[in-house]
């Protein structure tokens, strides 16, 4: 069993989010190539990718189970989880590479900016944010060109089993016309998700093409790859 000092401890699922800039790096995105396309972020959390993507001419939407809550409640939860996560980052800084953020204060600023920008957009453009959760999404097949999924699948492998992951990945592929990208491929203890090879083999048997691709981003030590699913 992994020592808890060697992993980020999260009760349930952290309600935090990332910015557009972080997504560009962790998913190796070309914003200009995505302009005019439809993109789904699932689960989107309290991240600002959707807002900034739309500012760049990308027709982006976000999905999260948290979107059934009021803006005031989301602010309260985001504030609480922000403080908890930053406290752990300070305590367990050796688990992370700090080249992108500089230090824990830099990471904290990104987290805060993400949820503040999200909350403004959530209030003003509620139609961009859909209250739903994997493994069942309320969209027709082929609704989005590209589907992105960050810091949920694989990361919480200690509480989401193979029987959750496979239907969820199939569902993300169902609503995509071109590809699905999932990042990272590691769990909270920084080890590669223990069922990844089995899941990839099953997806390929079902006709999907998968590829584990290096990305220009590393925060969690060793988490430098995403999973691409094509032939969706």
From TrEMBL:
InterPro entries reported in the protein's UniProt record: SAM-dependent_MTases_sf
SUPFAM superfamilies in the record: S-adenosyl-L-methionine-dependent methyltransferases
Biological process annotations from GO: methylation
Entry's Gene Ontology molecular function annotations: methyltransferase activity
Keywords carried by this UniProt record: Methyltransferase, Transferase
UniProt name for this protein: Class I SAM-dependent methyltransferase
Provenance organism: Halocatena salina
């Amino acid at each position: 069993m992994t020592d808890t000092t060697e992993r980020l401890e999260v009760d349930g699922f952290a309600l935090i989010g990332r910015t557009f800039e972080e997504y560009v790096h962790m998913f190796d995105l070309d914003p200009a190539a995505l302009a005019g396309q439809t993109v789904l972020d699932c689960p989107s959390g309290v991240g600002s990718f959707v807002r900034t993507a739309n500012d760049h001419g990308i027709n982006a939407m976000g999905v999260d189970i948290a979107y059934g809550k009021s803006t005031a409640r989301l602010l309260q939860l985001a504030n609480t989880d922000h403080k908890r996560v930053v406290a752990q980052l300070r305590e367990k800084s050796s688990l992370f590479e700090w080249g992108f953020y500089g230090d824990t204060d830099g990471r904290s600023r990104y987290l805060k900016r993400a949820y503040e920008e999200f909350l403004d957009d959530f209030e003003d453009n509620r139609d961009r944010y859909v209250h739903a959760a994997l493994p069942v999404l309320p969209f027709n097949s082929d609704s989005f060109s590209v589907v992105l999924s960050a810091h949920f699948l694989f990361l919480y492998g200690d509480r989401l089993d193979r029987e959750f992951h496979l239907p969820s990945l199939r569902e993300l592929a169902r609503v995509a016309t071109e590809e699905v990208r999932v990042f990272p491929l590691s769990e909270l203890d920084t080890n590669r998700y223990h069922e990844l090879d089995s899941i990839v083999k099953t997806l390929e048997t079902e006709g999907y093409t998968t590829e584990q691709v290096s990305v220009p981003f590393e925060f969690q030590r060793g988490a430098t790859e995403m999973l691409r699913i094509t032939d969706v």
